[in-house]
Specification:
This is Transcriptional regulator. The chain is of the alpha/beta class. The protein contains twelve helices and 16 strands. The chain folds into two domains: 253 residues, Aspartate Aminotransferase, domain 2; 131 residues, Aspartate Aminotransferase, domain 1, CATH 3.90.1150.
C-alpha cells in the first residue's frame, strides 16, 4: 500500500461538479480580480470566523505583512513570535519590524506563555500567536500577559493552519456551577486585533493556488487593508501610501466559497482520524503526540484545534521516517530548523541553545498522513507500521 501525505485529487473528485459550476460562473462574468466572488467569499469567511470584515490577499505571508502594516506596526517596533514558527517569521520580517523570539511548549508547539511574560518590553508593539499544526495552545494566558503589561500591544493571530479551530469559555450559573448551556464558542482569528489566514492548497480550507485573508472587526484596519492590497488606493488611482499588489483572485474565491461549506465536516473527519492515531500510538516507545486541544480539569475541551497536522515526537524521528517510507507511507517534518538557526535570520543575533524546546522539536517532530479523505484502512496501516517500528526496536535491544 502507498499512502501519500496529502491527496487533493480525492477531494476534487467529490466536488468536481460544484467546482466546475463555480469556475464557469467566473469565466461567464469575465472579471478575474476584486469582483463579486471575492466580495462574497470575504463576507462568508468573516462571518464564519466571527468578525465584521475580511480582506482577501494573495497569500498567508502577505496577510501577516499587510496586517501588521494596517495596525501601524513597522520599523523600530518590536514584535514577539515563537522560535519554531518558521513560515510566520518571513511575513513578519517583511514588515520591517524588530523580531524577538520566545520558546514554545513541548506539548503542542505553541507559544509558551511563561516565556512571553519576561519577553515583553516597552518596545513591544505586537505579539504573534501561531496556532501551529492547528493547535489552539494557551491563548487565554497569552491574552492575560498582554493585558497585565498595561501597554498597547496588538494581538496578531497567525491562523494559517487553524481554519475552524475554536476556544470556549463558560459563564458562571446562578448556583456558582458551570452552566453548560452558557458555553461560548469563539473561532480563532476573532480573538485578537487581526487574524491572518492562508488558503494554500494543503490547508484545511485550501484554494487551487495561493491565497490568504486578514479578518478583523476594526473598520479602520479593514479599510486600510483594502488599500494596502492594491497600490495603497482607497479609490482607483487615488493612492494614499506606497504599497504593492496582493489580491485574492476571483477563481480562487469561487473555489473557496464551495469548499467553505464543507470545512466543519472535513475538520470533524480529521479529528476522528487523529483520535484513532492517539488511541493506537499512546504509550508506544518514546513517542509523544502533540496535543491539538486544551482540556479543563475534567477532561472536557476548553479549546478544539483544527487538526491540520498530526504531529508526533520521538528521538528516533529520522529512522522512523525512513522506515515508514520503505513501507509506502509518506511523512513530513514541520519544521526541521527553528527560526534562529536559519541563515536568513542570523542577523537576529541568537545562537544555538537559546531556545532549547524549539531546537528539540526540530530534531524530533514527524507529521503523519492526515486529510479528510484518508480511509480507516489507511489510518490503520499507518498506525500499524509506526507500532511495528517500535516493536522491532524493543526486540533488537533485547538481542
Amino acid at each position: 500500500m502507498n499512502i501519500g501525505f496529502f491527496d487533493l485529487t480525492r477531494q476534487h473528485k467529490k466536488l468536481k461538479k460544484e467546482l466546475d459550476r463555480a469556475i464557469s460562473r467566473v469565466f461567464a462574468r469575465g472579471i478575474f480580480t476584486l469582483g463579486a466572488e471575492v466580495g462574497a467569499f470575504e463576507k462568508a469567511f468573516a462571518s464564519y470566523i466571527g468578525t465584521r470584515y475580511g480582506v482577501g490577499v494573495a497569500s498567508g505571508t502577505d496577510a501577516l505583512t499587510l496586517g501588521l502594516a494596517a495596525l501601524g506596526v513597522g520599523p523600530g517596533d518590536e514584535v514577539i513570535l515563537p522560535a519554531n514558527a518558521y513560515p510566520t517569521a518571513f511575513g513578519v520580517a517583511l514588515s520591517g519590524v524588530e523580531i524577538k523570539l520566545v520558546d514554545c511548549k513541548k506539548t503542542d508547539g505553541t507559544l509558551d506563555p511563561e516565556a512571553l511574560k519576561t519577553a515583553i518590553t516597552k518596545k513591544t508593539r505586537a505579539v504573534v500567536v501561531v496556532y501551529l499544526y492547528g493547535n489552539v495552545g494557551d491563548i487565554v494566558s497569552i491574552c492575560r500577559s498582554i493585558v497585565l503589561s498595561k501597554q498597547k500591544i496588538f494581538l496578531v493571530e497567525d491562523a494559517a493552519q487553524a481554519h475552524g479551530a475554536r476556544i470556549s469559555s463558560t459563564r458562571q450559573g446562578t448556583g456558582g456551577k458551570e452552566d453548560e448551556a452558557n458555553t461560548i464558542l469563539q473561532k480563532v482569528g476573532s480573538i485578537g486585533d487581526i487574524g491572518c489566514f492562508s488558503f494554500y492548497p494543503t490547508k484545511n480550507l485550501g484554494a487551487y493556488g495561493d491565497g490568504g485573508m486578514v479578518v478583523t472587526s476594526d473598520a479602520v484596519v479593514a479599510r486600510r487593508l483594502q488599500g494596502l492590497r492594491m497600490y495603497g488606493e482607497q479609490a482607483r488611482y487615488e493612492s494614499d501610501e506606497v504599497s504593492g499588489v496582493s489580491r485574492l483572485d476571483e477563481l480562487q474565491a469561487a473555489i473557496l466559497r464551495v469548499k467553505l461549506r464543507y470545512l466543519d465536516e472535513w475538520n470533524e473527519r480529521r479529528r476522528q482520524i487523529a483520535r484513532y492515531y492517539e488511541q493506537q500510538l499512546t504509550g508506544v516507545g518514546d513517542l509523544a503526540v502533540m496535543s491539538a486541544d486544551c482540556l479543563d480539569s475534567q477532561g472536557y475541551p476548553e479549546g478544539r484545534g483544527s487538526y491540520h497536522l498530526f504531529v508526533i515526537r520521538t528521538t528516533y524521528r529520522d529512522s522512523l521516517k525512513t522506515f515508514l517510507a520503505k513501507h509506502g507511507i509518506a511523512t513530513a517534518i514541520h519544521y526541521p530548523v527553528p527560526i534562529h538557526l536559519t541563515r536568513s535570520f542570523g542577523y537576529l543575533g541568537y545562537k544555538k541553545g537559546d531556545f532549547p524546546v524549539a531546537e528539540a522539536l526540530g530534531r524530533e517532530v514527524l507529521s503523519l498522513p492526515l486529510f479528510p479523505e484518508l480511509t480507516d484502512g489507511e489510518a490503520r496501516y499507518v498506525a500499524g507500521w509506526v507500532r511495528e517500528f517500535f516493536r522491532r526496536r524493543v526486540i533488537h535491544q533485547l538481542l
